[in-house]
Write a structure and sequence with these properties.
Order of helices and strands: EEEEEEEEHHE
Structural class: mainly beta
Number of helices: 2
Strand content: 35-45%
Helix content: under 10%
Length: 133
């Protein structure tokens, strides 16, 4: 998979955001593989996030941050190639990838008690599907 950032800025422009590519392989109606099980953070290659840290090195909100704890971003006008080891594909399998964005990372929203639906819901961007013939 290739992720292309065609924007004039990095994928993540604010440390409270979360963006990732979710990829699954379906065989019939069953998902036989996915790039993560529970959290997109399991896939360090296809998840874009910034976590700030306070003076003690603990995750921090921007107002108390002194440095980056984690910076998985993709710069403007750049690309990233991601390779996965997947089960052997068979005729009829479908590979589906969705670009998912959160205005506010759900974990941060919970901590800040943000419940506004437009801010806390996931947004599906580009979705691509490939059938194996």
């Amino acid at each position: 998979m290739i992720i292309n950032n065609k924007m004039g800025h990095s994928i993540i422009t604010h440390p409270m955001r979360l963006k990732f590519a979710k990829t699954v392989i379906k065989r019939g109606s069953k998902i036989i593989w996915g790039n993560f099980k529970k959290s997109p953070l399991e896939d360090k290659q296809a998840t874009f996030i910034i976590v700030l840290q306070d003076i003690k090195g603990k995750p921090s909100l921007p107002n108390k941050a002194v440095a980056y704890k984690l910076n998985r971003n993709l710069k403007a006008m750049s690309s990233k190639t991601i390779n996965y080891k997947v089960p052997k594909l068979q005729k009829g399998d479908e590979v589906i990838t969705k670009w998912i964005s959160y205005i506010v990372n759900p974990k941060v929203a919970k901590k800040l008690q943000i419940t506004t639906k437009d801010i806390t819901k996931q947004y599906i961007g580009v979705e691509e599907s490939l059938f194996i013939y």
